[in-house]
Amino acid sequence: MASLIILIGLIALSSSLAMAADHGPLQDFCVAESSSQVLLNGLACKNPSMVQASDFSFSGLHIAGNTSNAVGSRVTPVATTQIPGLNTLGISLVRIDYAPWGINPPHTHPRATEILTVIEGNLEVGFVTSNPDNRLISKILNKGDVFVFPIGLVHYQRNVGSGNAMAIAGLSSQNPGVITIANAVFGSKPDISTDILVRAFQVDKSIITNTQSKF
Description:
Layout lengths: L1 H18 L53 E6 L13 E7 L4 E6 L5 E7 L2 E6 L7 E6 L4 E4 L5 E5 L5 E7 L7 E2 H6 L7 H8 L3 H9 L2
Antiparallel strand pairs: 1-2, 2-9, 3-8, 3-10, 4-7, 4-9, 5-6, 5-8
């Protein structure tokens, strides 16, 4: 019986760890202390007696991001840099602006699930399931629609309207990370060997070389 209880306890513990995104806080809050030199999994805490309301707020999310770039989109983050009080709370937020036909190119968040709400415009969104199926699950979203991108999966958005579009997305980590696929594969430093990429993408070496030069 004791062995069974221990086994059940270990299963419960491993399940709770597997479901968690960021570790849960051990106190009411841990406002990030930006001047601290301490390195840990998260940011060091400010003295609670020095905490102010400004540590938990951010102004400016109503301001549109500049989308005059190659992909036609701009991500404005609201994470611990913008709101120190988010530290250890396991969430963050972004505003995404899209020029007409602009894209938020295929990328992943290695540490977070994303839930996106369209505020203005119409977006094509999608994510790709893992090997071996690599199934694309996509949908056209209208104003007020919500879509979820599961943690770690490659996903994208594209403005399919003739006007600007904007969305707000929540992420289940204070530091979700972002890996833009094209940048990671073709813009690594140093470069991934062209021979590797030629075999991986099954294209001519000149195409790989030309693509790497753009990143």
